[in-house]
Amino acid sequence: MPRVNASQPPPPAPARSWRWAVLAVVVAAQAAFFYSRCDTDERPNVGAFGPTNPPFERPSIQDRGMLGSRAPAQPGDLVVSRGKALIAGLATDGRRVYFGESLLGQRILAAAVTGDAETTLGSGRMPLDVALGKDVLVVADAGGLMTDGQGTITAFPLDGSGAPRVLASRIVMPSAVAVSATHAYWVDGGSVERDYIDGFVARAPLAGGAHTVLAAGEREPSGIAVDATHVYWARRDVNKQGEVVRMPIGGGKIEVISSGQDQVKRVTIVGSDVYWISSKDALGTRAVVRKAPVKGGFAFDVAVAETRMCSMAIDGEAVYWSDPGEVDGTNASRSGRILKQRLAGGEPLALASGQDRPCYVAVDATHVYFSTQSFERVKRAPKDIASMPL
């Protein structure tokens, strides 16, 4: 597919969309939930393993994994960031975690993995995803609730020096972003009024300059990843079935890696394989992580959820994912979990349970980090639960 130069202005985006109205209602409900929770005293839930009731026996490895926020840990070893604002996107370099705030905070933040004071890298309006480069954090921002075409892709210097650089603007739905050594890549999901056929995949130099549309006319593109030669994403085909595709990083022919998927998200490259979340397994009932060779070929299941998956991260040894759990009558949930499945096979292991709707996931050499919708909004848990203190 030929490249389209971004200097040619795209057709004007519609001013409003019913999906924004729906999103506004959802966010308003979430805001009420956060206010109701954060106006109360947020003390840790001290149970059988709390300081006043020491355990009568050492918990097993499986028990420790299921304890979640009540697992024994040193001070600061679990909660990385507290706050009222919803978290959008999560990344780590092993020293700090990076994330965006939407709704209440509207900031782009960095926090030490040990939970020390946060650093504000800049401001945002409605960040949806983040990607970590060598010295910048790239943020995909939808721009606002009720007006399409106000999204941006912005690079924030990690050391706080210099002003953030807007790499692209006038985006309808920048739902996912990825970073190479020289460029930022993103997908624009398109607008409902045009049946999402106006979605596209684009890139821009991290140093600044005009951005280039690599693939136009993509229906509902979602998830994005990049390696040394190609950019990968998911889309809907002419029959509105999900498929994972790739294209040379400078533009060119689109190749289908795997078709017949369902609502693909969180595309990731590890070695010579591409991984993604599909919302339904072969039986059409549960979410699943799948993988296929980057050049295309048979796709098979790597990890299957009990019900749903919100997000995932992979470190070369295992895949980690978030199960948001079920929301009860109070619009809260304590059934969310963070799970680990070795790529070599075996049974999944719960690293944290009893969490409030966990979603975004990131990993470093020793820990998995995840967002929740509680006041303790970013947490971490050891990747190897056998290493947790007893």
Tell me what you see in this structure:
7% of the residues lie in helices and 43% in strands. By secondary structure, it is mainly β. The protein has 2 domains: 1-36 and 87-220, Neuraminidase; 43-81 and 305-390, no CATH class. The N and C termini lie far apart (57 Å). Mean pLDDT is 79; it is low at 1-76.
Can you summarize this structure?
The chain has 390 residues and is mainly β. It is 7% helix and 43% strand.
Mean pLDDT: 79
What is the approximate shape? Answer: globular
Tell me the number of structural domains.
Answer: 2
How many beta strands in the DSSP annotation?
A: 29
* CATH class wording of the largest domain: Mainly Beta
Low-confidence stretches: 1-76
Main pleated sheet: 5 strands, antiparallel
CATH level 3 topology of the largest domain = Neuraminidase
What's the alpha carbon Rg, rounded to whole Å? Answer: 21 Å
DSSP helix fraction: under 10%
| CATH architecture grouping of the largest domain | 6 Propeller
User: What is the name of the CATH superfamily of the largest domain?
Assistant: TolB, C-terminal domain
Structural class: mainly beta
> Distance N terminus to C terminus?
57 Å
Spatial strand sequence of the major β-sheet:
1-14-13-12-11
Structure keywords:
single chain; 390 residues; mainly beta; Neuraminidase; 2 domains; five-stranded antiparallel sheet; four-stranded antiparallel sheet; 29 strands; globular; disordered N terminus
